[in-house]
Specification:
heterodimer; A: 113 residues; mainly beta; seven-stranded mixed β-sheet; four-stranded antiparallel β-sheet; 55% strand; B: 112 residues; six-stranded mixed β-sheet; 12 strands; 0% helix
């Protein structure tokens, strides 16, 4: 398994501002993922972040809105830009430790007012 | 496209009752299947997995068998505890190391 931490754990932000969420892993991993969990909903993949290459975004998510950095094999950031109340969600990062297992961070609970 | 369907919740049981949460999937090929659990206010934890047909995943008294013929991966536990109260997510992984596709989640509430 892997130990994953996220910062901040929660935040309340005003519309139109941006928030950067950090994800730190205790071991080097090739693949990291960012998911969104809207209130009372399931998880939806935003993008896959691989070190040394551009993030790959899922349909409905764009780089201008959710820029991602992956500077090394243990760290990634997700920025939620120009926020609106519809962006209020839990944002989770995950890592693939073995090819068929993913482990999740504790999540960042974002509320946009 | 690939998808996962879970039984709707919330499911409310008394302590020591038998639990079944149904999960069926649609996928081309042979995905790996997972159950994740989300306790209140926490992130997701991997509960169990199965990577091929007829595999049985088990952990903490929970079991699920990968049934290719019925495209199902139902979660079972013989005797639930109050501490099992959580939201349970069924998920499939089609490309190894790729994205997980989640079901809608089933909330379980166990009463003493």
């Amino acid at each position: 398994s892997a130990v994953i931490s996220q910062k901040p754990s929660r935040d309340i932000c005003q519309r139109g501002t941006s928030l950067t969420i950090q994800c730190q892993v205790d071991s080097q991993v090739t693949m990291m993922f960012w998911y969104r969990q809207q209130p009372g909903q399931s998880l939806t993949l935003i993008a896959t972040a691989n070190q040394g290459s551009e993030a790959t975004y899922e349909s409905g998510f764009v780089i201008d809105k959710f820029p991602i950095s992956r500077p090394n094999l243990t760290f990634s950031t997700l920025t939620v830009s120009n926020m609106s109340p519809e962006d209020s969600s839990i944002y989770l990062c995950s890592v693939a430790v073995r090819s068929y297992e993913q482990y999740f961070g504790p999540g960042t609970r974002l509320t946009v007012t | 496209g690939d998808s996962v369907t879970q039984m709707e919740g919330p499911v409310t049981l008394s302590e020591e009752a038998f639990l079944t949460i149904n999960c069926t999937y649609t996928a081309t090929g042979y995905p790996s299947l997972f159950w994740y659990v989300q306790y209140p206010g926490e992130g997701l934890q991997l509960l169990l997995k199965a990577t091929k047909a007829d595999d049985k995943g088990s952990n903490k008294g929970f079991e699920a068998t990968y049934r290719k013929e019925t495209t199902s991966f139902h979660l079972e536990k013989g005797s639930v505890q109050v501490s099992d109260s959580a939201v349970y997510f069924c998920a499939l992984l089609y490309n190894q190391g790729g994205k997980l596709i989640f079901g809608q989640g089933t909330e379980l509430s166990v009463k003493p």
